[in-house]
Task: structure prediction
Amino acid sequence: MSEYRPFDSGASMIPSSEPFTPINQVGEFGLIDRLRSVLGDDAADSLVQGIGDDAAVYRVGGGQVHVITTDAMVEGVHFDRTFVPMRYIGWKAIATNVSDIVAMNAIPHYATVALALPNNVSVEQLESLYGGMAEACSHYGLNIVGGDVTAATKLTLSITVVGEAREEDIVYRKGAQPGDLLCVTGDLGASAAGLEVLLAGKKGFEAGGDGAETSQPNLIEFAYAVERHLYPQARLDRMKTWAEAGVKLSALIDLSDGLGGDIQHLCKASGTGAVIEAGLLPIHMQTFKAAELYEKDPLSMALFGGEDYELLFAISKADKEKLDENTYAVVGQVVDASEGITLRDPDGNVTPLETSGFQHF
Ligand SMILES: [Mg+2]
Result:
């Protein structure tokens, strides 16, 4: 038996002849595909769902599965410490991970937290950050059970959450069938609207505006939208209500990138197309108001603003009857893959729904 030497064939420094593909040339999801093929698909028998859904799923015996997800929040990319209090950063970091567990129809149990800290963060600020995480953990019923702290130039939180469910209860992105209705919880675009308000406030402050109206955002007028951005809610409440009503969704994803981007993931996994009805999208009045004030398109905010952390799901027309109509809105229909993914306006004009969600690279 030869000695195990894993890097025998590739241990040298990167040769100068190696191609250099910039990450933005392949994009976030192209990158994931490239890295996934490096890993290969040599999975254990207990694995039910690997890369490609909101969380991975593996069997633990007795008909139970665990689901596991991980997400990083990086200063300057996901949050701006100049206008987001530490407490909210902590809340959001937990809530967004819980949202991915909920998007599998599982219950979150445990989290680990890896922190990378610049030296301009105080112990008191970190206590606030952990206060926000503790609040979210208590709200969603999970516990932080470990982690790591390291130095860095930007504040970064990497969180892993593990949840549990019966295997038969898990809902994947891949179960949508042509004819199913496409539905969302809550409203869409308010988080992006709230971010516009906060950014406008920061801009006004930096420009040294001479009065409250130029240097301060109107947080009262846009309280709902700002809260949606700073204090997102994972829809564990909806999943529990529907489980009690005996409803089985056919496909499910949480809305982190925006409906326009996340519908692509759901359809790709399901091998279907979709028609989204622009006139049916639930959009809050404050989103319309912010869009008007900052000269943005409210429909684009709803489709591509992202970070709403609502749920997008497919359900059969028969099962829809079991849902309380106050808990969701129908926004379209699943169609055959050959029909593509389209947006239909209230006049009946149909256009391809482009992927214009948040691009990290
Ligand atoms: Mg997700």
The chain has a mean pLDDT of 91. The first helix runs from residue 23 to 39. The chain has eleven helices and 13 strands. The first strand starts at residue 47 and ends at 49.
